[in-house]
Amino acid sequence: MLSPTEATDAALAAITAARASGADAADAVFVADAADTVTVRMGALEDVGRSESAELGLRVFVGQRSASVATSDLSADAIAALVERAVAMARLAPEDRWAGLAPAERLLKGPIPDLGLDDGGDATPEALKARALAVEKAARGVPGVTLSDGASASASRVTIALATSHGFAGGYSRSSYGASASVLAGDAAGAMQRDYASHSVRHQNRLDPPDAIGRLAGERAAARVNPGRIDSGTMPVVFDRRVASSLVGALVGAIGGAAIARRTSFLLDALGSQILPKGVAIHDDPHRPGGLRSKPFDGEGLPMSPTAIVADGVLQTWLLDSAAARQLGLEPTGHAARGIGAPGVSATNLYMAAGATSRAALIGEVDRGVLVTELIGHGVNGVTGDYSLGAAGFLIERGEVTLPVAEFTIAGNLKRMYASLTPANDLEFRAGTNAPTVRIDGMTVAGG
């Protein structure tokens, strides 16, 4: 796999060729990755996988016309053909007055920040197999667990480079290690319940011990055996940390530049207004040490810095790439996200700050409600804010978590949900988007 310097050189060569072929401007992204995964089931090896890939994406501009192309054939002839095709496509494309590279004066200058995203380590297939077996063994050892749906361990490394024709070139690499298990609990085939646990990190020495990951998966599955039904009604819903992060993700989707520019967001006129209760904050931190979405520059070559998205309940910013910023008459915010194609918008290490109330106290104030640990479906309307998802979890009665419940629906509207949520103080950084346990009062629950 190419080093960041070699990947940057490949991206630079592509934009140089594009300019020589008639493009007025261009940018190129190079992504290479290698990954090993080992899967086991019921104590036996099930699969060993190794994948490697390298792709080059090129975007060219002819005036205000643009085209994007990509290839995994990195031979000189293939790149030459790719460049010619891209320029020809751009000349035929419709004009877009908002299209273009990021403002040159906003580009990251100087050395690329080293965020320590690559630990330089590795994991052999034998070590991955041992880790997966240990995770599964711990999960199957939990009383009540009857079957394994499999456990896995993985290790990977990705190199990313970006170059633009107006002055930016840089690259970095990041490592990743993970382990997971999925198990079933219960005896009768029709009554079995499945649950899982997983952990992913950038540095291998920060990965949770295999027995901790497996035991958590087993305990989660065992706790869900013999679920009952919940009576329909209006009641408080407590979102476990595993699912509370989805509320933060939905908010970010509504403040992306494209949705605002197209006027297709339920938060269209909310900038500078109170959308969460006072004291509640949401942050984006691209430089978090070991963060799963940390990165030194955005998808257009702009520097990145921690951003307060919501402060004291007030929405502070949209998330803008250059095209959306031009359309809105604003400046890009450094949130352009880039795969092989054209840039979009995304947050990085996104989180809702911890509240002042313990999880136990948050639940203890509920006379009758539900603790949600799983969400099912895609029933979130980004235009209206209407929210309706299938769920599973546990009944809350007189301040205590009691029986498992399943096959019910929770519904509301995100504007009202956001305005009435209460975060607990149990925030943990386990994923790219994180949130503490959250309670929302007055949601509609429809039992099965």
TrEMBL record:
InterPro entries: Metalloprtase-TldD/E_C, Metalloprtase-TldD/E_cen_dom, Metalloprtase-TldD/E_N, PmbA, TldD/PmbA_N, TldD/PmbA_sf. Residues 232-447 form the Metalloprotease TldD/E C-terminal domain. One of its GO terms (cellular component) is cytosol. SUPFAM superfamilies: Putative modulator of DNA gyrase, PmbA/TldD. GO terms for biological process: proteolysis. Residues 26-90 form the Metalloprotease TldD/E N-terminal domain. Coiled coil: none annotated. Residues 121-224 form the Metalloprotease TldD/E central domain. It comes from the Bacteria. Transmembrane segments: none annotated. Pfam families: PmbA_TldD_1st, PmbA_TldD_2nd, PmbA_TldD_3rd. One of its GO terms (molecular function) is metallopeptidase activity. Belongs to the peptidase U62 family. This is PmbA protein. It comes from Sphingomonas guangdongensis.
